[in-house]
What we know:
The chain folds into 2 domains: 2-193 and 328-400, Rossmann fold (3-Layer(aba) Sandwich), CATH 3.40.50.2300; 201-323, Response regulator (Rossmann fold, 3-Layer(aba) Sandwich). Strand 5, helix 5 and strand 6 form a beta-alpha-beta unit. The chain is an alpha/beta fold. The relative contact order is 0.13. Helix 3 packs across helix 11 and helix 4 (129-139) runs parallel beside helix 5 (151-161). It has helices spanning 38-44, 49-64, 91-108, 129-139, 151-161, 201-208, 221-237, 251-264, 275-287, 328-339, 346-365, 372-381; strands at residues 2-6, 16-17, 78-83, 115-120, 144-146, 167-169, 187-188, 212-218, 240-247, 268-272, 296-299, 320-323, 384-386, 389-393, 399-411, 414-426. The protein has 12 helices and 16 strands. Strands 8, 9, 10, 11, 12, 13, 14, 15 and 16 form a 9-stranded mixed β-sheet that branches. Strands 2-1-4-3-5-6-7 form a 7-stranded mixed β-sheet. The protein is globular and about 65 Å long.
Amino acid sequence: MGVMSSGTSGREKESKPFGGSRASVPAIGRTPGSPTEPVLRHQASGISRRDFLIYSAASATVLLAGPHPVHAEQSGPLKVGIILPETGPSAAEGKSMFAGFELCLKEKGSEASRVEVHKKDPGPDDAQTLEAVAELVVNLKVSFLVAPPSLEGSVKTIHGLAGAKPILFVTNPCVRFVAGDVCVPTAFRVRPNSYQAAQPLAPWALRNVGKKVFIMGDDDPEGNEEADFFALGFERAGGTFLDRRMASPEAKEIEAVLEAAVKAEPDFIFASFRRDSAAAFLKALREAKPAIKQPVIGPESLTAFPLIVTDATTGWAGIKTLTSFRNPRDFVAAIKAKLQVDVADASRAAEGYDMAQAILRVAQQIPQETDSDKIVDFIRGIEIDGPRGKITFDANHEAIVPVMVQEWVSKSDAVNQMIVQDLGEARSPDFGCGRIGFPRRPEDESEAEKPSDSRDVDVIWDEDNP
């Protein structure tokens, strides 16, 4: 098994062996645009006119190639296309994810020969994503496709498929991928989405931290979704949030948000920052004068291992975050020992590992299956036992993951994870795909009206479109 790493020109390189105020409820349940409004649809997806033209050309290429059954007449290895950036803001996540994928295949030994990986670079700003999709799907005829970790890259990947049916792994956590026009039946996600990353922490915080919260985080779709879902869960549990301020990674802006938090006098702070902004926030928290006394909690990204908690300049001590990963230290050490690769994000590496496991299960157990619907049903029915424990999928193909509250502590010149409390499984409600019951306003729902397949999960409704 080898990796075919190339750009979007279609030429293969040499193969190499593996080695602001009140938080609003998100407008969920509505399909952005409609088939009769193509321009609005692309605007809602954040695609520019230039990208729309590229998308149209790439889609035409896919459509002209005809139907694309999953690994049709497969006689050799199962082809996997992976679109991950080598430079830019998501490069460290991409490198970590690919390292986890490699580790899984390396550990499987000869079984890995069933899989052939083709890796493409979408560029630092995902400008080449659509070309990469067309190359992988049409020319290389991959059976599985891994989308970039950015929101824009994932949306472009879905639009570029244009009806083709490789099994798609979405790696961005935003819930829009199970709502509206980017909800596709062949897509899976093996990481917690933005609801699972924040909402389970809300009732725990009310019981263990305080009744009044100040909410802050990255002013982008992921940060806003996490803030919204925490706020919604906290209010439903009986708590109150005093204010919600989102910020850019700029130090001055984060400092201003912290000052506003102190003036509001909350019982605690919820912060949905990640990567550079998480480091900037924690540094500002550490250097604040007078010191900020309120406890701080947040999603796993706030104290990501090893990138954030091994940085001595950040003030992560005492911060509690929600995680689905017990003991990431050993997993990172295994990657280093077996691949000689340093990863920045253990959670992303675990995601790559679990995607590889799912693909190998298909290659091992149903290698001749060409019906995409049957392969989707197969993956949905498997249980993955990986670095984060046992993971299964719900009817919308979202991962059902174990979650727990963690705290990182420094001991003997090392940083160690301490599990504060196990919270059980985290599931997603239905955000619009409709496979586990459509969302309803609770005051309009009687027991007789409740969807029979809702599985007792929470319901999200749209305040703006009752």
